[in-house]
Design a protein that fits this description.
There is one protein chain. The longest helix is centred in the middle third of the chain and has 24 residues, at 187-210. The protein is globular and about 50 Å long. It has 9 helices and 4 strands. Residues 1-5 have low confidence and may be disordered. The chain is mainly α. It has a 4-stranded mixed sheet, sandwiched between helices. A hairpin with a 4-residue loop joins strand 3 and strand 4.
Amino acid sequence: MGGGGNSSYGQTAFKRSKSHFADRITADGRDGWPVEAGRYRLVASRACPWASRALVSRRLLGLEEALSLGVADPIQDDRSWRFSLDPDGRDPVLGFRFLSEAYDRRETGYPGGVSVPAIVDVPSGKLVTNDYQQLTLDLATEWRALHRDGAPDLYPHALRDEIDSVMADVYEDVNNGVYRAGFATDQEEYEAACAGVFRRLELLTPRLERQRYLVGGTITEADIRLFTTLVRFDAVYHGHFKCNRWKLAENPVLWAYARDLYQTPGFGDTVDFDHIKRHYYQVHTGINPTRIVPLGPDLSGWLTPHHRAELGGRPFGDGTPPGPVPADEEIAAPGRP
C-alpha cells in the first residue's frame, strides 16, 4: 500500500494553509476557466471534511454528469493523495496515479502541499483550483446553467450576509478548531482550541433549537459546512483530536440536527465512515503511532428518527431532492450505518 502516514501531525504547530491555486471556474470564464459540462473533474477524498463539502454540493445541485468525480484513497503516502482505489492504481479519466501530477502540470516544483478538494481540467490535466472555501460557492452560483431541475439555492442573495457571518464563526471555532485542538503541541494551545470548539457548539445549540436550519427555512451552504464537521465528531474528533468534553450524541439538539441532514438525500449518501476513520487514525501517526482504528462508535443512531420537521422549514425550498446516487458512487457497506 505504501502508506506511511504523516508523523509530523502532533509534533509541529498547526497552521491551515491558504489555497495557492485560487482560479475560479465561472459562467463568463473570466479567469480562463469557463463553466463547461464534462470539461472538469472533481478530485475528492470521502475522508476529508473540506472535500466533503464539495461532494454534498455536487449531489444537491445535480452536477454529477456535468462534473465527474475521482475519489482518492483515504490512506495517503508521502506522494500525496493517490488513486489506488481505481483499477491499476490510476484515475480512469486523468490517467494519474497521484493528484500531485495535476499540481505539477500547473506549476512545476510547487512547494506547497497537495490538498483536496481539487478541480482538474481534463484536457490538459492541469489543476484549476484547490480553493475549498470558494469552490462550493461557485458550484452554487456560477454553475447554475448546469444545475438539475429543482436544485436548491444554497447561497441565496437575500441571506448571504448572514450565511457568511455564520460560516466565518463555524470555520474559525469548529471546522478549523477541531484541527487546532487535535494537532496542538502544548497544553495551553490545546485547551484554548478545544474550549473554542465547544463554546461555538453551545452558542449554536439554542439557534438550532428554534429553527431547523442555520439560516432561513431551507438548507444553505452554512449547513453543509457545519455538517461535514459534525458527522465526523464522535467517530474521530472526540477521541483522536481530544475534543471530548461531550459527544455529539450527548447534545440532543445538535445530534437531531446532524441526523436530519444525514438522512436528507445528498448528505448521508456521500459519507463514508470507513474512509473517515481509517484516514484519521492511520495517516496521523504523530497522534496515533500504532495506527489502530477503533471499532466504534455504533453508527446505527444516524438512522433513528430526529423529529426536526416539527420546527418547519423545507430542506429544498421550492425545489426537490436529488435523484438516486450514481451506481459507481454508492458508499460501500463498511462505510454506512
